[in-house]
Amino acid sequence: MAVDVARDGTAGAPGSAGPAGTRAAGTAAGTGTAAGGHAGGCACPGCPHGAREALRRARADFAARRDELAAGSTVPAALAHSPGASRQWVSDELTQAAQAVAERVRAVDDLRLRSLWRRTALAVWCAVALLAAVQAVTAALGPGWTAARTAGLAAALAAALCLTAAARLHRSHGGVLAPVTGEDNRLSTSRAVAAAWVLLVCYAVLVLAVEPAVASGAEDRRGLPAGLDLRHGAGLLTVLALSCAVAVVVRRTVLLRVRAQRLQKVRADRPRAADLLTDDGGRGSFTDVQYVLVNAVVLVLAAVRLARRPGELPELPWAAVLLAAVSAVTYLAGKYAEGGRPVVMSVVRAREAGDLDAPIRTGDDIEIRGSGFVPPGAEAPDRLARTTVRIGPVHVHVPLVPVAGGFVNPSDTVLVVPVPVDVEPGRVEVQVVTAAGAETNRYAIDVVD
User: Coil, helix or strand for 433?
Assistant: First the structure.
């Protein structure tokens, strides 16, 4: 993944102080009261409209400031004669401005997450209402209202009450989405698929539990428990066990690979529905898409069979179970193969036009070539600014070098940093520390007097 020109430099950026952030805050606060309401940039504490307006202004100020610095028009005259000093000053200015944007992003995402539980609870009750409508229409077109329809609606109401209570309990973590959100604050594909199967199985068992209570005849009451026979639900329970096992194994695999620095994870600002189908960088993932798609198809098949025969667990064909198993194996293999440790392949002296070829000396810029320097999801400016290079005993923060619309340094494959004067001449080791905290291999260079 190359990010020679990073994204707009605003989305996902964490907070700040600095010129851009100060102007954004002042403008939002100054116009909120005059606007007379939320639509004009309200500055009320905890108001989502005011927070979004402040974020919009902070992003606009950051983009303007970045483009100004990229053109070199606002660099102080005292620093203009020194390329290194002016570059460092520009980097510091942009880092502070990016931190201001990041603070606004965190404020907006926190408010959005706290209100999400109401939307998830509303979605649950909308699903119940849709089920009731479908039941009513099919009853009118078919044999009429039956005990199975009553049991299905009662089971849906019971499940909705439980989910609403859970959403209320986890209202600060996204409501119903809390159990399927990973430690990196993204929706987990494996957990979401497992949760879907758990919900279907629990709903089916609730239907079987309620139906005897509303059955009209004693003969029907005696026959209903047979629906829990293993010969009916063996395929369903196999898929359920498989999806739950995948969720547990994936969590353990990711945790071990992150600790071993074989996988880089950067925390997301908030969970998004697209996380189910994309990687951490926001690109579509084949393994995730096929896992969601295959399980969705098999889940629909199970739901249709449950609707046709509500008196027993849905009987899944073993061909569908095998299809789900192949999809799960593919997903697990993809999770194990993704990522990788950042690597330094070579280090050379950076040469500008007209400069003579020479060995590396203190004060010179060096170009570090490799891969994995910018983890997926770390393209925001405040996270780019966390990239560090260890040159001997000295830690050098990689400067942000802006261009129109983004940044040219740091990138995923090339970093340019100066060799500080505190580095002693001789053989020293160079090592990159990424925004995710992963360390590359050590690469030895010779620094001369």
Answer: strand
Own/partner contacts of 444-447, CB < 8 Å, gap of 24 or more, are 445/347, 445/360, 445/366, 446/359, 446/360, 447/360, 447/361, 447/362, 447/419, 447/423
Reported confidence tier of residue 5, pLDDT bands at 50, 70, 90: very low
Residues 6+ apart with CB under 8 A from 412: 1, 2, 3, 4, 371, 372, 373, 374
* 266 within 8 A of 282, measured Cβ to Cβ: no
Please check whether residue 248 is in contact with residue 195, taking contact to mean a CB–CB distance below 8 angstroms.
no
Tell me the β-bridge partners of 428.
Answer: 445
Question: Which pLDDT belongs to residue 225?
Answer: 57
Question: What is the secondary structure of 86-107 as a DSSP string?
Answer: HHHHHHHHHHHHHHHHHHHHHH
pLDDT tens digits, one per residue of 33-73: 444 445 445 556 567 777 777 778 888 888 888 877 777 77
Contact assessment for residue 332 and residue 249, using Cβ atoms and an 8 Å cutoff: yes
Return the half-sphere exposure (C-beta side, CA atoms, 13 A cut-off) of residue 41: 18
Least confident of 26-30, 172-176, 215-219, 286-290: 26-30
Residue 9 has pLDDT above 50, yes or no: no
